[in-house]
Amino acid sequence: MFCSVDTIAGMLFNRAETVTFAKVKQGVQDMMRKQFEERHVGQIKAVYPTSYRLRQEKNIPTFGNGVKKSDYQLTLEPVLGEEEKVDGRPHLSASRLLARRKEFHRNLVNIVKQHHKAFLAALSPPMVVPEEKLTRWHPRFNVDEVPDISPAELPRPPQEDRLSTAQEVLSAARGMLSPKMEKALANLALRTAEAGAGEPVASKAPSPASTSSALKGVSQALLERIRAKEARKLQALMTRDPRQEERLAMLGRLPAMARILRNVFVAEKKPALTMEVACARMADSYDAQMPPGEMEKHLRLFAELLPDWVGIHALSTDTYIKLDKGKDLGLVTEMLTRAAKEAEAL
Predict the structure, then answer these.
(1) Would you say residue 215 lies in a domain?
(2) ∠ at Cα 343 (288, 231), nearest 5°?
């Protein structure tokens, strides 16, 4: 929604038009096929406070959109630096749109990190992971259950005195109504006050971890050691380097790929294949789409882990891959599975 708002607002702003919420709403809904309301503007303002300068303005040309010229309208003005000008007036360029999008995304992730931090603190035992080392969420942290962004307060049009509650009506009309009407309003005001006072306040504090009945009789010290070990394992998982993550994913695919690689060499009936041909045959047979460059990484990992099974030979004309078809495939698969488990445990 932020990207759509920025796109629509940028076009209007660069044409020196007043960016009203009504114009932005229609444009965003046409782009996204979703409802767009003022509360979404409040959420955007809450995530990225310096993105827009919001005002209530009137005497804006409306061109028959059902809004009177004398009515107040919510307007949005992109906040730009002094250096971002074209012909003397601010201009929302494509590079600035991209920078704003990245800033919004960074702010949104930081909000989720705060919820994640509170989730880790509520665990037993509590966990502390430095934000700069965090590369993934805790496996039990459900991002979809993070509360919606609370909208920031938007500017409201100046209003004349408006009576909204029974108590306000009663105070303003005292002496002007019949005794029966005054009594009815007084009873309504009293019931409203009692209903507001009687609403229970939901506790947001996490409930303390309780020991399951299935764990009764188990040593508390043993439970603490198990929980501490699990916490260390999860902390290592959340701070794992992306390159290590990529290697682990590749290791997980190798056992299934080993059978495909052997079948390729059996079908080709050649002692060696060029890397290009081997990658193409593997990509054709593998159940997930993978570009040749990625497939070559997997073949080179085979040669790194099992050099006696897969050999890679770089010659002046081309790079060739050779396979020992006589080696037991079951043993190969077992060794690859063990290597993946050992890397996972690090």
Answers:
(1) no
(2) 110
| 264 and 328 fall within a common domain | yes
Q: What is the pTM for the complete model shown? A: 0.57
Spatial separation of the C-alpha atoms in residues 173 and 175, rounded to whole Å: 6
Does residue 208 register a pLDDT over 90?
Answer: no
Q: Shortest CA distance to 126 belongs to which of 136, 116, 135, 134?
A: 116
Task: Kindly state the helix (H) or strand (E) to which residue 55 belongs, with its residue range.
Answer: strand 52-57
According to DSSP, residue 20 is labeled B
12: confidence class by pLDDT, cuts 50, 70, 90: very high
SS3 readout for 207-222? CCCCCCHHHCCCCHHH
Radius of gyration of the chain (CA): 32
* Claim to verify: residue 126 and residue 170 sit in the same structural domain: no
Q: 283, 296 in Cβ contact below 8 A?
A: no
> What span, in angstroms and rounded, lies between the C-alpha atoms of 184 and 190?
10
- Report phi then psi at 27, rounded to 5: -65, -45
97 — pLDDT class (breaks 50, 70, 90): very high
Q: Are residues 147 and 167 in the same domain?
A: no
